[in-house]
Amino acid sequence: MTLHKFDDRIQERREERKMKDTILLDFFKLSLKEMDQYIDALQHVCNVPLLTNYLNNYVIPVVADWPGQVFTRQAITLRLLNRKDNIPNSILSFIPIIGVLHIQLNLLESIIKIYWDFFNMEYQYVFSTSKALSKTPSPYRTFVLLELARSAWKKIKPIVMGKFDKHCKDIEFLFLFELLDNTVPVGLDIYSTLFRSGDWESCIEGVFRAWSIFLQFERRNYNKAPLAFLSDIFYWGQTNHPILNILKEHLVKFTDYPVENMHSRIRRQTSPIDTPQHLSKTAKIVDARKTINSFEDIFAIQKKSTYADKDHLALLTKKAQVFLLEIFGNAYQRLGQSSIVKGPGENISFKLASLNITVDKKQMPLGFSSKHLPLYNKCDHCYEILCNGTGKSSMVIACGHGYHESCFTISLNGKCYCENFLKLGIQINVSSLVSRLSKLNKSKSNLKNMIEADEDSPQDQQIVNEVDILEVLRKDKQALPRVEQAYSIALERFLNINTTII
Ligand SMILES: [Zn+2]
Ligand SMILES: [Zn+2]
Fold first, then answer.
1. 401 CA to centre of ligand 2 in angstroms
2. Are residues 272 and 257 in the same domain?
């Protein structure tokens, strides 16, 4: 996996995630495309002699991706409602929990897809290439582009915020701010940092923020998966269920990482045309060898890393800073010139003046998905100028709405229009999920709807282009001083840039 970085807090928890503690019970062929096959898989677990008794008194959490969640939940629901005969009682001994790693993988994939125009520009600029970014970049490339954008933004944010008014409600500025200050950090941190640090409160908040991004993206299935998880958590909290404390204290153990790790190892040692028998045999060998890996690691010749090292990252981050300074400089020049384009029906899109792209509400802050579109430089409650020089204090909040302080705290009672959008998103998705789970659907289209687009994309794709690029950087001794110089020029231009009035 390439999504991992380790800070101190995460190091401490590393022990708990070691692969040597995982046990492979069995490895056999199932298509995992319908509920019955999940029941079959879980029945295998029940049939392990040691577990048969255990499951009479205890439950086992099933941490899995969306199909693993929805089919297990469906089986449990149908069993409880007695709507289908042959569902064994033992299914009630399993508790599906959404894997936070899968939330992150799907979120990153959605972010790069939805903001492709922006990341394509970043990619071409930072890697000095005229080649377009793939529409479905590898997870590694996605991660690199987002990480570079994040670390560059961190460095130039004070400079940018010093130039733009803190009440700026320019559409293009809000687009950039939302992406860099909210969406990208949530995508990068939800599993890699928040979950792995074991910090419960931050992780739960992160899951909610990830859900609200999925909601805005109108991302199928994942606009529901985090809600099912949060609903369980709140229910256990209300009923004082002991499982909640176990989750809080051992959060990092409830991970889908070992399964993904095992899949990667097996994929590396097999080919797609291998028979199920051969795959099963290999899986068992891989499992048996995992404990002697540390011994092998000491003697094995380390393969040269194809990933960027520290120096390259510093260079690429600096380039990303130049890229962002130019983008924000251009946006400043065209302040107030981005516009709302009304399409057929209720469709609206936003023409970003300097980036010269058209985006829709999915790419904009939450407020643009609400019934009240944020107004440029006006209070979204009283429609008067936000900063009219009378000293009336005002604010622009994270959703892109801006208010006079008195309008927000007194007239609106501290509640933005966006709250309704979120509430509605919860209601609609929860009721759609509940009806889906309690139905015996055999229809193919329903089934397709449940799993399509949520099959894992392979995590070990070959990183070909990055290797070339890094090789060029390695050889070019002048690269860093040149970028430093470009940065100084970009900074000076940014600081002196003015808004053009047309
Ligand atoms: Zn007002
Ligand atoms: Zn709002």
1. 5
2. yes
pLDDT average per 10 residues of sequence, the chain (502 residues): 43 56 85 88 91 90 92 94 88 94 94 96 92 89 92 96 91 96 95 91 96 95 95 96 94 87 82 88 84 53 53 88 97 94 87 96 94 91 84 87 93 92 96 90 55 45 53 71 92 90 68
Ligand having the closest approach to the CA of 394: 1
- Residues in Cβ contact with 18 at an 8 Å cutoff, skipping those fewer than 6 apart: none
Same domain, yes or no: 130 and 93: no
Burial-class residue 464 by CB neighbours within 10 Å (0-12, 13-18, 19+). Answer: exposed
What's the CA-to-centroid distance between 164 and ligand 1, angstroms? 21
Burial degree of 183 (CB within 10 A; 0-12, 13-18, 19+): buried
Asked, for residue 433, whether it belongs to a domain, the answer is no
Q: In sequence order, what are the residues at sequence separation of 6 or more whose Cβ sits closer than 8 angstroms to the Cβ of residue 485?
A: none
* Å from CA of 199 to ligand 2 middle: 28
Asked whether residue 145 falls in the same domain as residue 232, the answer is no
Residues 309 and 211 in one domain: yes
Query: Which residues are bridge partners to 341 per DSSP?
Result: 349
Which residue from 28, 56, 54 is spatially nearest to 41, judged by alpha carbons? 28
CB 328 within 8 A of CB 153: no
Which amino acid makes up residue 140? Answer: Y
Q: How far is the CA of 305 from the centre of ligand 1 (A)?
A: 56
| Count: domains in the chain | 3
Q: What is the DSSP string of 135-191?
A: SS--HHHHHHHHHHHHHHHHHHHHHHHHHS-TT---HHHHHHHHIIIIIHHHHHHII
- Domain of residue 281, residue span: 8-101+216-299
In angstroms, the CA 499 to CA 502 distance is: 10
- Whether residue 351 is contained in a domain is answered as no
Q: Record the pTM.
A: 0.88
Q: Which of 251, 277, 299 is the last residue of a domain?
A: 299
Question: For ligand 2, a single-atom ion, which residues have Cβ within 5 Å?
Answer: 367, 399, 401, 416, 418
CB 339 within 8 Å of CB 351: yes
Could you tell me the CA-to-CA distances from 420 to 106, 372, 381, 408, 455 in Å, in that order? 26, 11, 15, 15, 32
Residues 107, 187 contacting (CB under 8 angstroms):
yes
Residue 340 lies in a domain: no
For residue 287, the Cα-to-chain-centroid distance in whole angstroms is 29
How far does the centroid of ligand 1 lie from the alpha carbon of residue 166, in Å? 16
Same-domain check for residues 315 and 190: yes
Is there a single domain that holds both residue 244 and residue 310? no
